[in-house]
Design a protein that fits this description.
440 residues, alpha+beta, five-stranded antiparallel sheet, 7 helices, 21 strands, globular
Length: 440
């Protein structure tokens, strides 16, 4: 399906504004609820009809009789992915999960492993409805008439990503995922949080890599807030401009939306300093966001996993975090000091145990992984989740207007007392890669 990437960009661009944006899918067997589209174990994705499963192998249609919508479902013993061709925008997706004659256990992620629902369990004869809110994007920049006026310059690796392919893709995962129905409708009222940054923020597609940005949706109330993650590995403030990623956001952001900005790791590279355009660009972004009625929020880059002989984190980000703190005061904008919180978090974990939050794995932990993975910059899902909770903690403690939209999934957090890695739940996806993300 990914080989059709270029075709789909052209296709969707040409028909975007006349395209269907609401869907009702009945997952199961031959019996179909009125006004719903039938989805069976053989419904493989077809670009001509615009929806279906990426892979139908292993899928099972189970019919228990009774209600046409809730009496049957689709399940599998491995993760399965359902895709829909749909215009970019924010959407509410209602998922009907469960089994009239058995239990179920379902984790739901979208696009590039963006966490939406975690470990939803149902008992025998229990059917639940859960709503998630999702931002769908493409790489085209359009004017108000819908005419193409530019494009985001994607890296070659990005053309394989599920979040630039002009499709909404839903991942159903866990021990016993059982899906009865999926309905999709536009959400025009939610506040959008646009995320900018690098590989520590990006929606990472491949296991075992992860970032705090892709964990954030799980911690916000759906329908009210949608997370739009535009971060990408290896990016600096300048590169984010040069590739027109920020232009895409300026084109989409609306009054009352938020712009989260986290840069530093890659801006630190040889030849760059806070004086070489970092401060200037950061201030320009802040002023631009304010002029559009949006709310800028600065996020200091988290520390790398580098300890001294006293088991204390060593600053390896030069003066970039301090520069961001200073600019937040000068421009009177919100600051989430993830740099300080990550120092507390990693030191609480300790030098050895903190490896469990980063991409540290013995050889042969993953297919075709002949070498050990030992990365002191990038996180695995557990580490990414802990950092996402740090971000939310700061939002709550500072009483940002967003704090009223924090989900009940967030039950408070103390970086001095990290969650036990053994208690973290993350069924892995089918996408795995040992290649390190761009940047450092």
């Amino acid at each position: 399906m990914k080989n059709g990437f270029s075709f789909l960009i052209v296709l969707i661009s040409s028909i975007l504004f006349g395209q269907q944006t609401s869907f009702k899918f009945d997952f199961g067997g031959k019996r179909v609820q009125k006004d719903y589209i039938a989805i069976t174990e053989n419904s493989k994705f077809d670009k001509t009809i615009g929806y279906g499963f990426m892979d139908v192998s292993g899928l099972k249609s189970i019919d228990n009789g009774g209600n046409a919508l809730t009496g049957d479902f689709i399940t599998s013993e491995k993760p399965f992915y359902f895709s829909v061709v749909i215009p970019e925008g924010n959407y509410d997706i209602q998922l009907t999960l469960g089994d009239k004659k058995g239990s179920s256990e379902t984790t739901v992620r979208v696009e590039n492993r963006r966490l939406m629902l975690d470990d939803v369990k149902t008992k025998v004869n229990e059917i639940v409805e859960k709503t998630i809110s999702v931002h769908v994007k493409d790489s085209i920049i359009r004017n108000q008439k819908g005419e193409n006026i530019g494009i985001v310059k994607l890296k070659p690796r990005e053309t394989k990503y599920l979040h630039w392919d002009n499709l909404l893709t839903i991942e159903f995962n866990d021990k016993a995922p059982k899906v009865c129905a999926v309905t999709i409708q536009p959400n025009k009222k939610a506040k959008t949080i646009f995320l900018t940054g690098d590989s520590t923020v990006v929606d990472a597609q491949y296991e075992p890599w992860a970032s705090w940005g892709q964990m954030l949706p799980y911690l916000f109330v759906p329908k009210d807030v949608v997370i739009a993650n535009y971060a990408e590995s290896g990016e600096t403030l300048k590169a984010f401009e040069d590739r027109h990623r920020i232009d895409k956001i300026w084109n989409k952001i609306e009054e009352g939306d938020y712009l989260f900005i986290q840069f530093g790791h890659n801006d630190q590279k040889a030849g760059n300093s806070v004086k070489s355009g970092y401060r200037k660009r950061l201030k320009e972004w802040i002023q631009k966001a304010k002029s559009l009625g949006a709310i800028p929020v600065l996020v200091t880059s988290m520390n790398r996993r580098v300890f001294d002989e006293n088991n204390k984190i060593v600053n390896k980000l030069d003066d970039f975090p301090d520069a961001m703190r200073e600019i937040a005061k000068e421009e009177n904008v919100y600051l989430i000091d993830l740099n300080t919180m990550s120092k507390t978090l990693f030191e609480a974990m300790g030098s050895e145990n903190s490896k469990k939050a980063f991409v540290y794995y013995p050889a042969n932990s993953y297919p075709n992984q002949k070498q050990i993975l030992a990365d002191d910059t990038h996180f695995n899902p557990y580490g990414a989740y802990e950092l996402a909770k740090c971000v939310v903690k700061s939002i709550v403690e500072q009483r940002l207007p967003l704090s009223k939209y924090i989900s009940k999934n967030y039950k408070g957090f103390d970086p001095n007392k990290p969650d036990a890695v053994e208690d973290f739940h993350w069924p892995e996806s089918i996408y795995m890669e040992t290649l390190k993300p761009d940047g450092n």
